Amino acid sequence: MTLLDGKKVSNDIKDEIAEEVKKMKANGEKVPHLAAVIVGSDGASLTYVGSKVRACERVGFESTMVRLSNTTSEIELLDKIEELNNNDDIDGFIIQLPLPPQIDTQKVLMAVNPDKDVDGFHPMNFGKMALDMSTFIPATPFGILELLDRYNVTTKGKHTVVIGRSHIVGRPMSILMGRKGFPGNSTVTLTHSHTKNITQITSQADIIISALGVPNFLKAEMVKEDAVVIDVGITRVADESSPKGYVITGDVDFENVSKKASFITPVPGGVGPMTIAMLLKNTLLARERHRARK
Ligand code: GUN
To answer: Hey, which of 95, 112, 117, 119 would you mutate to test ligand 1's pocket, going by the most ligand atoms within 8 Å of its Cβ?
Structure first.
């Protein structure tokens, strides 16, 4: 069994990006600038955005965190997005999800200038992704592709089973794994809450990508020998013995599934850190596009 070490790979990627930023500075060029908007004070969202801002500092990017209250109206958020769209200093920005219920998420994501949409959530960018055009690929799926690539995991002709059809992970992942190229060329099954006999499907999979958010959902008996297992779950499970009062738990029963898998991602330290590294990569790309427009 080989551990797909997202922590290590993401650090390698950050080092590579930091090198590029050094060159930009040496040439007197403006460094990439990422902004993150967070509405409300959800603990997990604040943690993620904090990690994104710290990652910017680590590679030498500029970053701006925009914090808005939980009672922010849709109009107020749309105004803020307009401001960020028009702010020439900012190359790319994200709206951290989920948003409070008074705000229509799809409307908000559609207001982001597609050239600054480093999350790749705008329908134009999602469409480009599905059509194999150059675009911003959502950071978590992009991170999974990068892990498969850097560990030379074969995907061509393999059966990939994706669990969960969220707009952020499952749906784009199912499209990307079936695309022409590497990683891709997989035969993809997208499973979800209405899927019947899921064990029958997962136990035929060469590659399983679980993005469900149900702790320890994927058991050893659902996985065939030598499968590749990617765990996207990051659920906070209450645990009084831990200093934070919770532990981050994946979708996969790691202890037992790892005994059968050929490659597996740990939680934490697998897909999570990759997501942040790929957001930085997208921000680098956004800066290039921004410069090309000038
Ligand atoms: N919430 C959970 N994952 C993500 C992500 O990748 N981007 C944003 N903006 N919000 C999220």
So the answer is: 119
Could you tell me which of 95, 235, 94 has the C-alpha nearest to residue 164? 235
Cα-based distances in Å from 2 to 80, 127, 146, 227? 45, 34, 16, 11
In the structure, how many helices (H) and strands (E) does the chain have? 10, 11
Nearest CA to ligand 1 atom 1: 97
Identify whether the C-beta of residue 175 lies closer than 8 Å to the C-beta of residue 129: yes
User: pTM surpassing 0.85?
Assistant: yes
State the Cα–Cα distance between residues 231 and 54, nearest whole angstrom.
24
Q: How far is the CA of 93 from the centre of ligand 1 (A)?
A: 12
For the stretch 209-223, pLDDT in tens is 999 999 999 999 999
What structural domains does the chain harbor? 28-113 (3.40.50.10860), 139-273 (3.40.50.720)
